[in-house]
Specification:
The protein has 456 residues and is of the alpha/beta class. It folds into four domains: 125 residues, Response regulator (Rossmann fold); 153 residues, Rossmann fold (3-Layer(aba) Sandwich); 72 residues, Helicase, Ruva Protein, domain 3; 59 residues, Arc Repressor Mutant, subunit A, CATH 1.10.10. 45% of the residues lie in helices and 13% in strands. It is built from 20 helices and 16 strands. A hairpin with a 2-residue loop joins strand 4 and strand 5. Helix 3 packs parallel to helix 4 and helix 19 packs across helix 20. The protein starts with a helix and ends in a 10-residue tail after the last helix.
């Protein structure tokens, strides 16, 4: 409590009744509150005194809350700021979070929601992020340096983040880093692949159900939203959500509560939503496959993960890291990588990105029996896959390439994409590819993509 007594909160609102309510609530939380009514007074107070949190209304007599957010972001970046908006002003709240606000509160103000928001804001600086959290995010290229800086900034916010990038580029890794660097890192990180859940089970998986609410509901289930309460929910391949679930997801995000199937009660949830897909969400919206209102709600801030072929200078560093990681798991001495192998890897286009690189190295370690990994152990396709894995049609076959080899390259690329999408769940990948599990397992062995048995 003594730590809370030292914390100061600035309230900026022109409504005297709301200022009084906020000051009383903050006082009961053992916080020192200062309240003013204009943008000018707010900026003056921020310049004169030290604050640990700022709550500002959006509509002020001499300006708006966005001016306060920008002023704090520029001059006092360590002060978390949240905005209070009129009911339903989602666009305004989204703009505020893009400018640097960590969260927003809609009028009429709920005291429970207010207390939660204050706790969240004060928690941003009370738990310093571990300095080693980004050390395993490998890559010294300019794009990776910029992405690391963005991740650190996003970790201080509670705004929804859309992580874009190709399959296998490391989108879930970015999501986990944002969570691990945030004040929520001691709470759950729950990841779900939206494309791997049968449509008829989605509502139960997300929101839970009561025992006996439908055939097969033999016990109560909390659902992913409540399992992630207090932490982060990562929706991978969010573009694969059917439209009926998009409606329900939007409501759960807006209301910050869920109702399990067969239950009459709604349960509040305090989660941060991170999502990703290898598809273009803008294109999905334009084609009518993804709701525009949900798109704006989850795409407050975008983080783009570069493809591996766009940062070839990072490949040697990644190779060293991945070989050491695999050898530590297998308790063996890491072999050397021949110069020819490094050259071959540096010129390969990696349609499966970092995930494919790791699989290539795992296969090479299995095949090599000496102290050196040579080109023959890598088993790279002789023809690099097309640079855009979402191309509309098959690439042309080079004149000097046998048809069988060309078709194997295409088959390898499509299988890798399906495996990446399903997080290497081979049963789900087989379903996505429209083949039996036995057929997929045969193809994995034929293409040397399966060095050993794995759990499904």
């Amino acid at each position: 409590m003594e730590e809370n007594q030292k914390r100061r909160v600035l309230v900026i609102d022109d409504e005297a009744d709301l200022r009084e309510l906020l000051v009383i609530t903050l006082g009961r939380m053992k916080l020192d509150a200062t309240a003013v009514g204009t943008v000018k007074e707010g900026c003056e107070m921020l310049s004169q005194s030290e604050f640990h949190l700022c709550l500002t209304d959006m509509n002020l007599p001499d300006g708006d809350g966005l001016e306060i957010v920008r002023f704090i972001n520029k001059n006092h970046p360590n002060v978390p700021v949240a905005v209070i908006t009129a009911f339903g002003s989602t666009e305004v709240a989204t703009s505020a979070m893009k400018d640097g606000a960590f969260d927003f509160l809609a009028k009429p103000v709920s005291l429970d929601r207010l207390r939660q928001l204050i706790d969240d804001g004060l928690g941003i600086n009370s738990k310093p992020a571990p300095s080693t959290a980004l050390s395993q995010f490998i890559g010294s290229s300019k794009s990776m340096t910029l992405l690391r800086a963005q991740i650190e900034k996003l970790a201080r916010s509670h705004a929804p983040v859309y992580i874009s990038g190709e399959s296998g580029s490391g989108k879930e890794r970015v999501a986990r880093l944002i969570h691990n660097l945030s004040s929520r890192r001691d709470k759950p990180f729950v990841a779900v692949n939206c494309g791997a859940i049968p449509s008829e089970l989605m509502e139960s998986e997300f929101f839970g159900h009561r025992k006996g609410s439908f055939t097969g509901a033999f016990e109560d289930r909390k659902g992913l939203f409540r399992e992630a309460d207090g932490g982060t929910l990562f929706l991978d391949e969010v573009a694969d959500l059917p439209l009926h679930m998009q409606v329900k997801l939007l409501r759960a995000i807006q209301e910050k509560s869920v109702r399990p199937i067969g239950d009459s009660k709604e349960y509040p949830v305090n989660i941060r939503i991170l999502c990703a897909t290898h598809k273009s969400l803008s294109d999905e919206v334009a084609s009518g496959h993804f709701r525009q209102d949900l798109f704006y709600r989850i795409n407050v801030i975008e983080a783009s993960v570069p493809a591996l072929r766009d940062r070839p200078e990072d490949i040697p560093e990644l190779v060293e890291y991945l070989v050491n990681k695999l050898c530590n798991q297998w308790e063996q001495t890491p072999p050397k990588i021949s110069a020819a192998s490094h050259q071959a890897l540096s010129t390969y286009s990696f349609p499966g990105n970092v995930r494919e690189l790791e699989n290539i190295l795992e296969r090479a370690l299995t095949l090599s029996e000496g102290e050196i990994i040579d080109v023959s152990h890598l088993q790279l396709p002789s023809h690099s896959a097309p640079s855009n894995p979402t191309h509309g049609g098959a690439p042309g076959r080079p004149d000097d390439m046998p048809l069988e080899e060309f078709l194997q390259d295409i088959e390898r690329e499509e299988i890798l994409k399906a495996l990446d999408t399903t997080h290497w769940n081979r049963t789900a990948a087989a379903k996505k590819l429209g083949m039996t599990f036995r057929s997929l397992r045969y193809r994995l062995q034929k293409l040397s993509l399966d060095p050993g048995d794995e759990n499904e």
